[in-house]
């Protein structure tokens, strides 16, 4: 089998463009944490306790380790990622408001002595989301900003 020089050049160009457009190494852990805490295309409002426990979502710096509020975005990664680019409007401080509404499940802490025994109540809604972005990648969901 003979390998043509043009095929090798094409492979090198593809590899270089993939690396150039890939995610920076320092963003990967923050992006993965964001996905773990907020990506929930199949999460429903009755699954808050299970999802938060199974994903190990906690709040450091609290006495019981239970996170007060956690929101799951019921969309795929591609639709969420676009908010940090053409699908979002800059709000300042690296925050972007989505140009479209997203279905959400918001889990609010009802009780809990200590993690992992946190009890949540879920609520479904559809609203614009505000994400903290770093070089085009979502790394934070802003729970503090509620948009109609």
From TrEMBL:
Residue ranges of domain Ribonuclease A-domain in the record: 27-145
A GO CC term assigned to this protein in UniProt: extracellular region
Predominant cellular place of this UniProt entry's protein: secreted
Signal peptide bounds: 1-22
Keywords in alphabetical order: Disulfide bond, Endonuclease, Hydrolase, Nuclease, Secreted, Signal
CDD domains attached to this UniProt entry: RNase_A_canonical
PANTHER family per UniProt: ANGIOGENIN-RELATED, RIBONUCLEASE
Name of protein: Ribonuclease like 2
Organism in which the protein naturally occurs: Carassius auratus
């Amino acid at each position: 089998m003979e390998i043509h020089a043009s095929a090798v050049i094409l492979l090198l160009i593809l590899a270089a463009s993939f690396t150039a457009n890939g995610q920076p190494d320092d963003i990967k852990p923050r992006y993965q944490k964001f996905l773990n805490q907020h990506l929930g295309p199949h999460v429903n409002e009755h699954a808050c306790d299970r999802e938060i426990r199974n994903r190990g979502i906690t709040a450091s710096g609290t006495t019981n380790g239970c996170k007060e509020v956690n929101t799951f975005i019921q969309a795929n990664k591609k639709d969420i990622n676009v908010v940090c680019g053409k699908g979002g409007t800059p709000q300042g401080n690296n925050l972007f408001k989505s140009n479209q509404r997203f279905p959400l499940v918001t889990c609010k802490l009802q009780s809990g002595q200590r993690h992992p025994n946190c009890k949540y109540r879920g609520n479904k809604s559809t609203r614009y989301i505000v994400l903290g972005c770093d070089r085009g990648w979502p790394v934070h969901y802003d729970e503090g900003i509620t948009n109609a």
